[in-house]
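WARN no homologs supplied; continuing
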Amino acid sequence: MLREYFCAGATPRYWRLSALLMTLYLGSIALALVFGPGFTTPWARAAAALAPVPPVLGFVVLEFRRIRAADELRQRIELEAATTALALGIPVLLALGLLDGAGVLPVRMILASPVLIGVYLLAQLWAHWRYR
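OK structure emitted
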């Protein structure tokens, strides 16, 4: 059932590429956290800090390909989920940033991605429920 919600149109090739990208992402995060602070030049620290970005961009391309290969209804569900997640996620992140700025609640910006992904998954469930 959950596969129908979140993985419609996922092929074995999609899963292989997804596993490869996740491995690259986790490896680059580990390297950035372990070796990044040890670099002395700002350019090397920046390169280590930004190392996880290419695998994330790979996920974006992979998802666009999956969605573009889907039928029109699935594309509409994905579009509604993405716009709902953006419309709800941005105010949540703004509120968290403002609370952090005011010193009320310390929030690390690394939480932005999981917050947006969580809102997106909930929005996808909602959009799928609407069109069942």
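The longest helix spans residues 72-101.
OK
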